[in-house]
Specification:
Elements: E1 3-19, E2 22-36, E3 39-47, H1 55-69, H2 73-80, H3 83-86, H4 90-107, H5 112-115, E4 125-126, E5 128-130, H6 138-144, E6 150-154, H7 160-170, E7 174-178, H8 186-196, E8 201-205, H9 213-223, E9 227-229, H10 236-242, E10 248-252, H11 253-256, H12 259-271, E11 275-279, H13 285-292, E12 300-301, H14 305-308, E13 314-315, E14 318-320, E15 323-325, E16 335-336, E17 343-344
Helix pairs in contact: 1-2, 1-4, 7-8, 8-9
Length: 345
């Protein structure tokens, strides 16, 4: 019999983090541990406030799923496979699936990527994020981030162009622009790209509102840059429709429902000729390490939560010589650095 514990936790940013959705000082999270046969697996559900799924809903959904599965491996596999049950609780499924995958891989003494027939992280572009904030603090924030040779800049506010120019002045890194649906016109986006220059520009991520699909194609035709869909592409069905408008997809565990689904989306994206970004929703080292195990599927890795969070309760992925490194050993390789107060489900 397996035992599941849950712990609510507030992940705090080192600096207030601004996007076109607004400014926030942290993100609500739920950590899971799965114990049995001398092995502990860990999972994470981290939910920004602009999502409809919340931590109370996650606790309710995971607790009910656990009881349906009767705490046994066969029952757990069965409830994770029940797409109808999870519905809008994709972050909840991702967290439970993460804990189960970590536990099972540790039990069989293999890293998760090996258990999934993967090959670990390839040398993708590794971006570090600079949120919306005062232009005069750009140099200070850049100095705090590890140098990976690539940055993701949040844009969509009145100071976006000034911030882009400041980053170009203080850094020679490649740049990806993330609008979070905040840009209003193609011309506005083109101006931002031109301020960077083609030789340094990695592309755009979700520049316009999800319903403004044709604008993404127009932007690609105007700049030649890859436009990655994020909010427009929640799962596999959206991917099939979005290939007309986007050149890539940003896949996130909390959005698609887990590592297994993320792999399926990445593989289908490749078949459709789309670029693949593996992203996160400000997860801790645990959630970002979980996604990093799919790194062989990626063109861009956007897993910088551990460098933005002030109270990360786990240790996992690291940067060495500008590249992202997944911990060695069985399971996910992410381990707690503080003791969390788990309550039984």
């Amino acid at each position: 019999m397996l035992r599941l514990g849950l712990c609510s936790y507030r992940l705090r940013f080192r600096h207030p983090f601004g996007t076109s959705h607004g400014l926030r000082d942290g993100t609500d999270a739920l950590f899971l541990h799965l114990k049995g046969e001398g092995v502990v697996g860990y999972g994470e559900v981290t939910l920004p406030p602009y999502l409809k799924e919340t931590i109370p809903l996650a606790i309710e959904g995971i607790t009910a799923a656990w009881r349906l599965g009767a705490g046994s491996p066969p029952g757990l596999e069965g409830i994770l496979a029940d797409d109808q049950y999870w519905g809008r609780l994709q972050g909840s499924r991702a967290g439970l699936h993460m804990a189960w995958t970590d536990w099972l891989s540790k039990k069989t003494n293999r890293p998760v990527y090996q258990s999934n027939n993967g090959s670990g992280v390839k040398q993708s572009a590794v971006v570090m994020t600079l949120g919306i904030g005062p232009v005069e603090r750009v140099a200070e924030k850049l100095a705090e981030l590890p140098n990976t040779g690539a940055l993701k800049l949040k844009v969509g506010d009145a100071d976006s162009l000034a911030r882009v120019r400041a980053v170009c002045e203080h850094s020679d890194a490649m740049i990806l622009l993330d609008g979070n649906q905040g840009l209003k016109t193609v011309a506005e986006a083109v101006n931002l790209a031109q301020a960077i220059g083609k030789e340094r520009f990695l592309g755009f991520e979700q520049p316009f509102q999800a319903q403004e699909r044709a604008m993404n194609k127009q932007l690609h035709e105007s700049t030649g840059a890859v436009v990655y869909g994020d909010e427009s592409i929640q799962g596999l069905d959206d991917l099939e429709a979005a290939r007309t408008w986007f050149g890539g997809v940003n896949i996130k565990l909390m959005k698609c429902g887990g590592q297994d689904r993320a792999r399926t989306i990445a593989e289908r994206a490749r078949e459709l000729g789309l670029k693949v970004m593996l992203g996160s929703m400000s997860e801790s080292s645990l959630g970002c390490t979980a996604m990093a195990h799919l790194g062989a599927e990626s063109d861009v890795l956007d897993l910088d939560g551990p460098w933005l969070i002030a109270n990360d309760p786990f240790r996992g992925i690291r940067i060495e010589h500008g590249k992202l490194v997944v911990p060695e050993g069985p399971g996910l390789g992410a381990e707690p650095v503080i003791e969390l107060d788990y309550i039984g489900a």
